[in-house]
């Protein structure tokens, strides 16, 4: 075992840091630090800058335009990005469908779609969940009828993040008759501009707009936009969901959130001292930091292949990661005190409601983010689903 | 000892539940909060005598006790009522404690005329109810003038008066201010639970002294007791409402070919929510029992209740939110509103950390 970063890895960290210092636009970082959802324009601008540097798809192999980084390099990169308040690039193209396409897609699909994911020209959304199929995804009802070489798709998707600004959707639809629910599903790539695609916003608890309902009416998907084999979509979806699960420890973001929480606690005055000087608060924060450090090593263990059962460990990461994320934000709002109560509209997104006269620096965005992050135990497999996966692995031992 | 509500109290509960369920159901509430809380609702609430339910008959109230008040607050919690009822009740308690002709007159206006009173006590950077006001009142002829800042004044937009706290020569004073008087800059905004609050900048604002010194401190302590009972009872209603919405939801939502409520993990989670609520209800009763007791005993109970109220409401509503899956995140589902109200309740007038520290100082 070697616990330290190699000289090369250390140099890499410095390089990333210098790049971020130079190239990450201040206004984007400032907006992102607030905790509101980044606007599409910010995502594009940042993606273009990363792309120029050849760093827009940290996880992709060289062959497909990635930087060919080791797992540790990717970790360092994401860590530095989070600490610098870079917005998290939209995951749907880069982390989810991209790897599916370069692993299972046709040459034509690779040539057509991968470069535009890298460059930020095409945004994707994930059309998996349906009103009746959430945790039980395999029960999905969206249908694709074969018509010559094409599929005519009908159905309804829900919770589709960023569908309102995505150009493409990767979609699961039932195309074949089958005994098992999991069989007969195909993985289709759908153009969001098709007139049969209707996107309706869903108003959420944080008063922001990220998720949508998508109605798919007689949308014709050419055969060339079927990924892999018909009826094998579940296999590709599982590959994708496994990738999604392993990237949901939220560790980098939580490290950043922890620092922000400490800043809030340092600035907030209570009883003649700062909140951070309050012993009870300090101990709670210390306890969370202990967990956060362990989480970081858990991610590194995973990346080094030092876990006997990656599937179970990935779920453990999601479970611990989502609860640590909540605990950090709990501390942040505890430190903020009554100032969490007002609704602070995202003023960068246009005029909103009246702002209070006195607004602590860190307050706007914090509560919106707090409310939105409640979804951390729901999306990418709920906590109960993760526990189910872990038990399944354990029972195989 | 008999901890059951008497017949009138049970009737009050039933009628409150029925009335709010009809006049203030979830859809009506959503329309209501888009603008200001509708004056129509307050009129009916006044006609029903609620603002005076726990105020003495000679002031025009119904002569009830803290029990009637808690019953109403609990039902309001269940219906997610946001409006000037709580702040008015806190002010009424402080005014009753203050005594004197002017205070009694105001209590009578609350009890019989439905006057709404907001409490302007917290200040920017403040942590909670026991912070000393830094706004300053200076004598000016017969009256006073106050300068300073007040933060998070709940329900000021709807209020007829504000009770403002300020430092004076012999400690703290409680003053009456008319919200739209000149010399008062004011910003109304909405809270994340869709309630309303305001910030105030007072700059030599004319004010009428109601009570000062030790008596004012006692009035504030009384106000805090009613605040805590009010929020404690509201938290019971909120948590029970969240549990009932969640049970309903998991009783109709199917996944994996079964009702969600068929899964034991879900059953156990609901059971845990129930256990938390039981604990909160008991704490509420305990705090109500100290009503006529000594100030220290009462203060401890009120502090404990506020801590439990915030934590239990947030925990139960958070569990409910999670059990709704994606639906819980939507503005359309009541549970997301229960959760937001619970979060505000936890932070209102000071959060759990603040009141737990205060409780710990009294531990012996
Ligand atoms: C903010 C957000 C963004 C999202 N983005 C996307 C997206 O871009 N694309 C997409 O396709 N989907 C997306 N989703 C959907 C997400 O994947 C689903 O919400 C999730 O899979 C849960 O499904 P559900 O909402 O139908 O909840 P349900 O499956 O109905 O679950 C409700 C509750 O029951 C529990 N439960 C379910 N089954 C069991 C069981 N067998 N045992 C015990 N407990 C159980 C769950 O854990 C949950 O607490 C998003 C969701 C959210 C909240």
Strand content of chain A: 5-15%
Task: Give the second-level CATH assignment, the architecture of the largest domain in chain B.
Answer: Up-down Bundle
Shape of chain A: globular
Computed structural class of chain A: alpha+beta
Overall pLDDT confidence of chain A = 95
Q: Which topology of the largest domain in chain A does CATH recognise? A: Butyryl-CoA Dehydrogenase, subunit A, domain 3
CATH architecture of the largest domain in chain A: Up-down Bundle
Number of strands of chain A: 10
Q: What Rg of chain A, in angstroms, do the CA atoms define?
A: 22 Å
CATH first level of the largest domain in chain B: Mainly Alpha
Taken from the alpha-carbon principal axes, the silhouette of chain B is globular
- CATH topology group of the largest domain in chain B: Butyryl-CoA Dehydrogenase, subunit A, domain 3
Number of helices of chain B: 11
Distance between the termini of chain B: 27 Å
Name the hetero compounds present.
flavin-adenine dinucleotide
Total E-strand runs of chain B = 9
By CATH, the superfamily of the largest domain in chain B comes out as Butyryl-CoA Dehydrogenase, subunit A, domain 3
Q: State the low-pLDDT regions of chain A, or none.
A: none
Outline the structure in words.
The complex is a heterodimer of chains A (397) and B (364). Chain A is α+β, with helices and mostly antiparallel strands. Chain A has three domains: 7-89, no CATH class; 124-232, Butyryl-CoA Dehydrogenase, subunit A, domain 2, CATH 2.40.110.10; 245-395, Butyryl-CoA Dehydrogenase, subunit A, domain 3 (Up-down Bundle). Chain A contains twelve helices and ten strands. Chain A has helices spanning 7-23, 26-34, 40-53, 71-83, 91-104, 107-119, 233-246, 251-267, 279-303, 310-336, 366-372, 383-395, and strands at residues 124-127, 143-147, 150-158, 168-174, 185-191, 197-201, 212-221, 226-227, 269-270, 273-274. In chain A, the strands form three sheets. Chain A has a four-stranded mixed β-sheet with strand order 1-4-5-8. A four-stranded antiparallel β-sheet of chain A has the order 2-3-7-6, with no helix packed on it. A two-stranded antiparallel sheet of chain A has the order 9-10. In chain A, β2 and β3 (150-158) form a beta hairpin. In chain A, α8 packs antiparallel against α9 (279-303) and α9 (279-303) packs antiparallel against α10 (310-336). The mean pLDDT of chain A is 95. In chain B, the strands form two sheets. In chain B, strands 1, 2, 3, 4, 5, 6 and 7 form a seven-stranded mixed β-sheet that branches. In chain B, strands 8-9 form a two-stranded antiparallel ribbon. Chain B has helices at residues 7-23, 26-34, 39-47, 66-78, 85-98, 100-113, 213-252, 264-289, 295-323, 334-347, 352-362; strands at 117-120, 136-140, 143-154, 161-168, 171-177, 184-190, 196-212, 254-255, 258-259. Chain B folds into three domains: 7-115, Butyryl-Coa Dehydrogenase, subunit A, domain 1 (Orthogonal Bundle), CATH 1.10.540.10; 118-212, Butyryl-CoA Dehydrogenase, subunit A, domain 2, CATH 2.40.110.10; 217-362, Butyryl-CoA Dehydrogenase, subunit A, domain 3 (Up-down Bundle). Chain B is of the alpha+beta class. The two termini of chain B are 27 Å apart. Bound molecules: flavin-adenine dinucleotide. Flavin-adenine dinucleotide (FAD) sits between chains A (125-126, 128-129, 134-135, 159-161, 211, 375, 378-379, 382, 384) and B (253, 255-256, 260, 263, 265-266, 322-323, 325-326, 329).
